[in-house]
Structures are given as C-alpha cells and as structure tokens.
User: Fold these one by one.
Assistant:
Number 1:
Amino acid sequence: MSDSTQPTLDNLLSEERTFPPSAEFAARSNAHAEIYSWAASDRLSFWAEQARAMLDWSTPFTQVLDWSDAPVARWFADGRLNACENAVDRHVAAGRGDRVALLFEGEPGDTREITYADLQREVSKAANALQTLGVGTGDRVAIYLPMIPEAVVAMLACARIGAVHSVVFGGFSAEALRSRIDDAEASLVITADGGYRRGNPSALKPAVDEALAPGDEHDACRTVQHVLVVRRTGQAVDWVEGRDVWWHEAVGAASDQHTPVQVEAEHPLFILYTSGTTGKPKGIFHTTGGYLTQAAYTHLNVFDLKPETDVYWCTADIGWITGHSYVTYGPLVNGATQVIYEGTPDTPHQGRWWDIVQKYRVSILYTAPTAIRTFMKWGEQIPAGYDLSSLRVLGSVGEPINPEAWMWYRRVIGGDRAPIVDTWWQTETGAIMISPLPGITATKPGSAQAPLPGISAEVVDEMAEPVPNGSGGYLVLTEPWPSMLRGIWGDPQRFRDTYWSRFPGLYFAGDGAKKDADGDIWLLGRVDDVMNVSGHRLSTTEIESALVSHPMVAEAAVVGAADQTTGQAVVAFVILRAEFRDRIDEVGEGGDVAAELRAHVTKEIGPIAKPRTILVVPELPKTRSGKIMRRLLRDVAEHRTVGDVTTLADSSVMGQIAAGLGSS
Ligand code: WT7
C-alpha cells in the first residue's frame, strides 16, 4: 500500500530505531525512572501525592478514590478547591504575578502579553460580570469564541464561580451550536463579533443569533438569558436589546476583586461535546479535582516543563479537549508561560508558525500529525529559514503519527535533538494516558509506547484477554484514572453502553492497537464508526444524518478514507431521490449536486465535516439484516480491489457501484 499514513503490521513490528534522551536531558528531567515503580507499587497513594503536589486545596481531601458507584468515579471527593484559583491566584500569591502567562499573537500580527497578575484581574472582572448577568454555581455557559485571550479568561471565569463551561469550537455551524446549547441548557453564551481567519475577519455572532432564533423544535432561546460579546474584529453585528451585552462594557465596568467559589472536588468543571457512533454528539463531562490533578501532572512530566524558563506552545484551539487540558488548565496550573496564536499556519505565509517559534523562543511545541504532514508537503526549506534552536521537547496528539512524519518532525523541527512525545488520549480521558516520558523513554517513531505512571492500559482480544506481544486487538483502560469522564451529560445509560458494555469492567476506548515485540503500544485508529480527520473526531452517522436531511438525498453512507495529509478524509456515497436522478450528470468534481450537498453539511455541522468526495451511487452495499457494509465502501474510496462480498444481500451491488463510477 502506498499510503504512508496507514502503517501496516509488518512495518510496525519491524521498527528498530529508538532515540534515548541525551544524558543532559535525562539529568535535568522532572521525572525519573523510579516514578513507574512508585506508581505501580501503590497507585492510589501515588495519585493522592500528585493531587497534593499539583494543587492547592481549601479543604484537604482524606479520601482518594471512591469506585463504589462504578463506572462513575469519585476522586478526592471530600476535598474542596477552585480551578481558577489554582490556575491563577496562587501564582500571584506566591510572588509570581509578574510572570507572563499568555503571549498572544493575533493573526493580523497584533500581540498582547498577559502576566499572571493581569490574568487575575481579568478573570476577577469577568467572574463579577458573569454573576451580575445572573450566572450562578452549576449553571452552564456556552463559549463560542476565536482563539483569543478572552477565550481562556471566559473559561477561567466560569470555573471561578463554579459555573460549567461548554466550549463549542468556533468552526461549528449555528445548527451544531444550537444543539449543544439545548442539550446543556446554557443560560449564557459568550461569543465575539468575529475572529481573523486567513487574513480576513470571519464573523461568529451571526451564528449565535441564528442558533438562538425562536423556533418550535428547540429551546435554546428559552434557557439563554444573555449573550456576552467580545469585540475582536470591529465588524458590524445585529444586536438584540436586553439580551446582548458587550464584554468590554460588562467586564470593563466590573470590579477586579473577586473571591473564588470553593467547590467540591467532584463539582462539574466543564462539558465538551464530541462525536460518537450515533448522530447525536455526546456531552462529555469532567469534574474539578481529579481532572486538574492529571492535567497538571501530565503537563509537567510529559513535556518536562520548567515553568521559570520554558516557553510552551500548544497549537490546539480551546474548542477541543487539547485546548482545555493543555492550553487552559494544565499549563496555567503549572504556572507556565505560553503562546496562543489565533490564526492558520499559512497566514500570511507558510512560515508563520516557525516565525512564532523564533520570535518567542518557544521551547515546547505540542501539535498534531496532520500539521506536520502539511509542513512536509510545503517543504523543509520553509522551517529551515528560521531559528528553531529554542525547541527542546516536541509533542504529537490527535491521531497516529506515521514513522515518516515522526522522523521529519524530529530532524527538521527538532534539530535531531528534541525528544518527541506521541501522546494518546481522548476527550473522555481528559488528559494524556499513553506517552513516552522525554527524560526517561527511548522513543520509537510511530508508537505512543507505554501508559504513564499511574495509568493502566491493555490491548485485549474479543474475549477481553490481553494479547501477547506482537499481536493486535482493542485498547482498554483497566483501572479508573483521576481525569476520567464522569459521564455523558444527561444520559447515564449511554455512558455505560458506549464505554463499559463491550468488555464489562473495562473502559473501551474505541481504538485498535497492537503491542510490538517489546510490549510497546501502537495506536491504529478507530474501530467504530468514528473518523479522524486532521485530528478532529467526526461521526460517520452524524454526517449521514446531515446528508439525508437534504431533500435531494434518499440514502447516504459515509466512510473515512486514508488521506496523505489529513489522516482520513470524509467520503460520502449518496443515493439521490428519484425526482433528482436526472441531475446525476451534474455530480462529480465541482458538480452542482456535490457542491450543494457539501454546503449543506457545512451548514448542518461545520466546514470540518464537509465531504472531500461525494459519489452518487445507485445502491448501497448492505447485509441481509440491512447493515451498510462500510468496509466495502472504504475499498472503493481507497481505490482498492473490493473485498469479500459474500455477506451482501445483493452481491451485484458493488458491480453497479463500480460501473456507475466509471473512470473514478
Ligand atoms: C481519538 C480521540 C486527545 C486529544 C485530541 C483528540 C485518536 C488521539 C492519538 C495518538 C493515535 C490518537 C484516537 C482517540 N488519537 N491521540 N497519539 N495516536 N491516535 O481527542 O477528539 O477525543 O479523539 O483520537 O483515535 O480515540 P478526541
């Protein structure tokens, strides 16, 4: 197979290159090899120690884990704390108020430097403003913002008053925003007029207006009392009197003194929606004490953070879990100095990221394989034009990193010097679970390798038995961990069904994995109907529902096909309704029908879900029980010989599909 993004078993198990840390790196490492045996010898006291070391507690906990209501865990349950106080105030109290927390780089080139003392004033003002707008402890707040400092401030302000934030990625459509506001019954939406995208202002507020427009099928307009609007681009906005409030007015006028609300360790901190195998996104919810403990512990050790000297940059948007754990909470709890960048990597030129690394002397960079593969495509002469010598740790997250991209990242970006940590985790796990430790592990291109100290993972077969080295199976987590999801918002049964029913007593991650000859873990991608496009999780069913909601479409099947840059790409097979079949000739690259359906998916979900390819077919391959055989469609989408068709209800269907596709 020519596609290098899909490692085969053979090349996986023959990977012999390893890269141990240099002696200097190892000598200065935050973590030492004994941490593994320490954690293994007494997991719970290890986590209790981390919770005390990482966080300030207003009421110290005496219980570590309560698993009596499994699979809902309670960690450090009798302790009390405040997340924002841990991320901000305590650094100021300890005399670190002058340290820079955020180095903001806007896409147009505007910059802001925000110290921990500045951040304390800002979050205090925002917290006061939220309370004035009627937001109380436990209320839900939807945040729909570009990647600007206010996004971090808004999250922290919610945490400060014990409100539950639900960040919705700014690239999601009004429709997607509305369903998330509805599900969480948010009382406030925080948004902006717009943000900068590829050199131009890109509006956000209209999507909020549309999401909140009165209608009978939804109740967002019932629960939402106010919309707080940050002025970022200065573009014109529609204004609903009595509902809409400018951030600069409400927050600007508020007092900068605010006492953080102490909450129980198990108080909900946030909800974050992610795609599952059904059409409806799941509201993954996380609580306070355990989540913060593991976010901070992993951030400190996986990136070997030295808060006094490092400049850390995670390129994720706060709309994803990576932005929650490794932009807002982990780094700030650890008192790090970090860069946040608003825009895209190619605005105004393809060297923008490397310019930022050079300008701020970034020492730790955390990004996704899809970005690395894009830079490979653009050519190494681009990063070669910048001084990247400040980089000392490189991280990867979101999808499997193919060994070729890993080697390029190490050589071209890391100067053959900086260790790479390939970190496996999920929205549900809250924080990194499987990863090398850069001062300890001899890293291996393409493998996330081993569970972190305190974490228990396995690769099992269908019978839930661990597979031997050299074999593949399903990735499971075998012991509860502090930052684990506490459930799916409003749907406890779905929580049990999705994660805990396939292998009773074990958390089923939905990923296929293998153990190599050394017992190192290789992640191989999803085994369910979830796709991974550019490190973003998309549900085949959700996109299918979007397609069939279009009047032209009778039936749709979506698969993730291997893609050189994005890892997977969305390929849709659609059957048109009879009355539209005469438009079939308009389909094809650039055809009207395909364009119309792409625009429809963009409207229903957002541009990230837009199919790369839409193929109009006469039939879909189904089993006798009516289940669509996506495996066969994937063969077509990846231009392979179609596999075993014996279980098809009508074995001629694949022939019809192939005939209809003609030359494609
Ligand atoms: C899925 C979770 C974790 C933050 C970003 C994605 C895939 C994630 C890796 C990795 C191979 C990975 C898995 C996982 N994934 N990291 N290092 N190697 N695959 O969070 O949207 O919740 O998606 O991303 O398939 O299940 P998410």
Number 2:
Amino acid sequence: MKFIEASKHYFDQAAKALDLGERLKRQLSTPQREIKVELTVPLDSGEIATFVGYRVQHDSSRGPMKGGIRYHPCVDEDEVTALASLMTWKTAVVDLPYGGAKGGVNCDPRQLSQNELQRLTRVLTDRMQDVIGPYRDIPAPDMGTNAQTMAWIVDQYSNYHGWSPAVITGKPVELGGSLGREAATGRGCLYALEALLADQRRSIEGITVAVQGFGNVGSWAARLMAEQGARIVAVSDVTGATYNADGLDMAALVEHVQKTRGVINFKGGEVLKAEEILTCPCEVLVPAALEEQLTEVNAKDVQAKIIVEGANGPTTPEADETFRRRGITVIPDIFANAGGVTVSYFEWVQNIQQYRWSEERVNQELRARMTQAWADLKGAAKNARDLREAAFMLAVSRVAKATLLRS
Ligand code: NAD
C-alpha cells in the first residue's frame, strides 16, 4: 500500500475501533481548507516560470494548524493532503495545542538559484499571507526547504502584518529560531527508544543500531544514541552504506560526510549494499530517509527487534503485519519523529513570550513531552494490536473530543 493510502487506512482503522460514527468520521477525514495557487516567478535568465503551490489545512479543532512546506518535484494535491492529516495526528499524539496542515510547491529546488528560490518563496508568502498566521496556521521547513526559506517567509509576512516571528518555525536562531531545533527530531527518536527500553528494564548502553539516512534526522539520532553508549553498526545514505560490527566512530563519520557529502568510502567501515542496511544484524533499526522502505518484500528478513521510525511512513501496512507476527516492535512515526514539531512548538511559545529558553531547558521539556506521550501511548496500546494502532487511536480520540466540544 502506498504511503498516501496508508495514512487514510490507519485513520479508518482507528475510527472503526473508536466507533466514531459516520458524521464525525467524515468531518475528521475531510480537510478544512485546500488552497492551490499559481506562482509566477522571474528566473535569472529573464524568462518567467510558473509553479503550482499547495496548502492543505486539515484540522484546527485543537489549536492553530502546524505543518511544513515542501519543495519537491513530486509534490501534488494528494501527497500534501495525506501529509496534512498526518500532522493532525502527530500533534495530537504528543498533545501539542495544534492541528495539522502541510504545504508544498511542485518544483525542483536543486535546479533553482538562491535568488530564484527567494523570489518563489516571497510570491508563495504573498499568496498565503492571509490564510497563515501565528494563531491560524504556522508553517515550518520540510524536504527542500530550510531555515533560510523560513527567514524569507517571516520577512515577507512581516511586510503585511508587522514583525511576526511566531508565524513560522524552523527559523535561524538570529530571527527567533529555537536552540535545540536542529537536533530535535533525532533527539526525540533517542527519547522514544529510551522510553521503550526502560519499560523492558534495559539501558541503551551497548545496544546495536543501524540507521538508514544520514541527513538531519538520521545523523542526529545516530550521534545522540552513540553518546548514550549505543553501538552504531551501520549507516546508509543516498551514496551507499557502511558497516562495522564493533561500532562506527560517529565523530569520524560525521567529518567524512561533511568533507565528501556521503557515507560511501568511509575508512572506518566495510562497504554494505545500500538496501542491506534494513536487514543487517542489529537490535534497533532507525529508518530515517524515505517513505515505503520496509515492505512485504523485505520485512521477513529484518533482524532488528525494535524499529524507530525517524522518517514519515517508512513502513507499509503489509510490513507492519509481518512485524506484528514476528514480535518486532515498531515505534511509529507519529510518535517517534514528533521531537521536531515539539521543539517547533517551543519555538512558537518562545516567540509569543518574546523570551529565549536555554538549550538545556528545550531538551528537558522535550524529554518530558516524549515521556508523557509514551505513557499515554502505552495506555492506548492496551486496546490495540500494536503501537501504531494505539497512536492513531489516541490521536483520533483527542481530535474527536475537541471537535465534539466545539460543535
Ligand atoms: P534530509 O534531507 O536531511 O536527509 C535525508 C537522508 O536520507 C540523506 O542522508 C539522504 O542521503 C538519505 N537518503 C535519500 N535517499 C536514500 C536512499 N534511497 N537510501 C538511503 N538513504 C537515502 O531529511 P531529514 O530532514 O533527515 O528527513 C528524513 C525523513 O524524516 C523524512 O521522511 C522526513 O519527512 C522525516 N522527518 C523529518 C523531520 C525533521 O525535523 N527534519 C521531522 C519529522 C520527520
């Protein structure tokens, strides 16, 4: 099953288990607002290019909507809609006072210069400035966008509304971004794993871990887990994979990737075929690259006993079935990678308070949120077949309750 269909499948399952009823089910599955805009942008060559941008605002019953902006050639209405609903469930699982939204522009950012990207982003903000806002919908970075993109958005939005840093998160620290935001999603993966291990009366010390993807999420997850004593035995990225049964030297690997832009040819490990990262010997697997990586084809060969979903949608529902049958625990994306949106929430809180928190406080509050959400998840898991089903039931019931109270 494709990622786009899977999020609807999990929602339908939860709605059935919670006996939501047709009216509420339709209300929660229908986006509140879908926006499609034409973006006309002068290129450096003098030509005029036209792009299509989307913003889907899925649900705001628990607070203003929250979700990233993606610049990618595959962006379309269906993808943005699926990702928007996933944000509603993710913010609800970790009990942030937010709903869910997502946006994107169908473009290839690697083919655009910085000036072209800036013009595109400012035109997008012109088109969206009346539907986003600190108490309406708060975008953030996603694939193909970064802190610089957020800086252009806050600047352009502020031309209309006065200085408004809380309109967007993932900003550079100089413009009101939060300390700790860069590492937050990987750190959240660490806290999620530690919570599960604590329940099993185990520590992370000496646990073997394989990580697919060495970008923002994967590299921070690997580094922070290694700092706590885990042995990172394998890491992959788009260039290839590297394996060392004794544990990869994280500091040396990070330096190698900074210098060469990939994990391939790392001297401290043996070469592994890229796809073997998912089935190599390890106790914990962290898919932190792309969706639909663990499928009915490879799920039977996975050796890990715990999967921490750093990426969005890395496991198909068919693979989930296999993992359930084989007794492999999957910590689902809407909880495991919620560290990023949680620290985005802290950024918004700091912007509204006009008061900066220390990095130590950010990390402490993140741990507290993740730990509480884990306790809530375990409570929900008593009535579910696995943690993903529990996470969806927890999220959907919270959103349903808020919706009913407001109607
Ligand atoms: P990123 O662009 O920083 O890193 C992606 C990594 O995946 C890169 O190392 C890339 O080389 C690697 N990769 C790409 N194709 C690959 C392949 N076929 N095999 C192995 N590796 C491959 O992206 P990111 O921000 O780290 O996001 C990764 C995933 O986590 C995405 O699914 C994203 O939606 C999700 N996510 C990110 C955040 C965040 O805060 N960054 C928050 C929640 C979820």
